Amino acid sequence: MSITDISLLSMLRTKMQWHQERQKLLSENVANADTPKYRPRDLVAPQVANDKRIPTGPGSVDLVRTEPMHIAASTTGSTRFQSSRMGGYDVRPTGNAVNLEDEMMKVVNNQMDYQMATSIYSRSLGLLKRSEEHTSELQSRLHLVCRLLLEKK
Q1: Angle, to 10 degrees, between the axis of helix 100-152 and the axis of helix 7-31?
Q2: What pLDDT, in 10s, does the model give residues 120-131?
Q3: H/E run at residue 84
Q4: How far apart, in whole angstroms, are the C-alpha atoms of residue 26 and residue 19?
Q5: DSSP per-residue letters across 17-54
Q6: Which of 13, 31, 92, 148 is the most core-located residue (most Cβ within 10 A)?
Q7: What are residue 43's DSSP bridge partners?
C-alpha cells in the first residue's frame, strides 16, 4: 500500500494546502490595509465528503460541493479552494474594509492550525515507518525460525 492511498494522509495534505492558500490571501489582506476600496477575502474551509466517497483515487480526497462553483479557481491565482469576499462592516472613508486586528487573529489561528496538521501528518508518517520496520523485523525473525526448523529436520 502506497502512502498516497491512505485517506487520512490525503485529508491532512488537503488541509495543509488549504492553510497555505489561506495564508496567501490573509497576507494580501494585510498588505492592502491602506488600499482604497479594497475588500478583504478569505477561503471557505474544505469539507471532507462522507467516508463512502473517500478516496476517489490515489492521493486525492473528494471535497463536499455545496454550491456549483464551490471548487472554482480564485481570481488571483491557481488555488483549488473557494474564495469569499467579506465586507459590510467597518468600511473606512476610502472604502477599505480591512480590519488589521481581525486579519492578524486569522493569521495566528491559521498558523496554529497548520502546525497542528503538519504535526499530525509527520507523526502519522513516523508511526507508519515504525510499523513497517517492525513488520520487516518480524518477517526476518520468522524466516530465521523457519530456517532453523528446516535444518533440524
Answers
A1: 160
A2: 998 888 888 888
A3: strand 83-85
A4: 10
A5: HHHHHHHHHHHHHHHTTTSTT---EEEPPP-BPPGGG-
A6: 13
A7: 83
